[in-house]
Amino acid sequence: MTYTTLTYLGVEKALADWGISTARRENGNQAGDNMAFNMMLNADAVDPFPYGAKITVQIGRVASTINTLNPTLPAPEVTDFSEGRTFFVGYRVDTFRTGSPEMERLEYKFAGPWEFFFERLVFQKLWWTWNGTANVADWRSQVVLGMSVNALIGANDAVPGSNATNLMSIRQQVIEIAQYVVAQTAMIAAYGSTAQFQFDSLSNAIDGTNYDLLNYEIGGAIPAEIRCLIPDFLAGFGATGKTSGQSGSAAANMQTVLRAPLDTVNDITCAEAMRKMLRWIGAVGSPVVWFDYTATPPALHVATRDILPSANLPFS
Predict the structure, then answer these.
(1) Diameter of the chain by CA atoms?
(2) Residues 113 and 298 sit within 8 Å (Cβ to Cβ)
(3) What is the rounded CA–CA span in Å between residue 261 and residue 35?
(4) What is the pLDDT of residues 74-88, one digit of tens each?
(5) pTM score
(6) Is the backbone peptide bond immediately before 297 cis, with ω within 30 degrees of 0?
(7) Computed from CA positions of residues 121, 123, 128, 130, in that sequence, does the dihedral angle turn out positive or negative?
(8) At 278, is the secondary structure helix, strand, or coil?
(9) Are 239 and 250 in contact (CB under 8 A)?
């Protein structure tokens, strides 16, 4: 017999032992991923899950002790489980209290990382600012999507010169947005000051200056350990390289990098910034965004539908 459990503050119990009923989960592409349930408590009871409380829900768990009176349930208040997998990780956003002569209960909603962090956090980028003596990079919510302040020199840069700015591919901009959220979640003491999810990182390993372009095209071999499966090149033009500073065939490929038009925006959330970038890749394969909760911490994935495997769902 297996069970669905909920873990909060290090305590794992079956849903029934928490007093939880009618648990349900909803998930949308580039939208909210949340879970809701009811707890049969007095309407004026102390809230067992305060705002922002982080829970982990696991399915297929095996209890160490079975209830001798009812084998379909674990032993009362058992907290020792094994096996199974993580189904959802979320943070409490809403509590609705219901009280009537017939029934009293608390109704909860927990939001996943996308809804709790991406939809609430305003995106900021490094922006060149004159401090009176020199240009310095500073974080601002007035941003240009598709542009980085990495100092580059080359014909393909937005501004040639020693303080040039770098045109970013769609994939690079998506990674920068997600990594900004990752960095912000790692500053929250309530969650252990550790990153609440993981994603690909931008690298500049080849020359130490420009961001690397991923040598991947739709239809090609999928690189291992890559979570952002958006190609950097038009089909047939893939090459490992940079956005500038190249020579020979690599320079020619700079004109085939998948970039979105520069977009100047103010005070938009990280979710809005992601959707603005992903809409430009829609015709290539309609991007899908999801979290793999079986990874620790949960892993964010972005991919075009055409590279994802088919799924057979039962219908009855």
Answers:
(1) 80
(2) yes
(3) 36
(4) 666 677 788 999 999
(5) 0.87
(6) yes
(7) negative
(8) helix
(9) yes
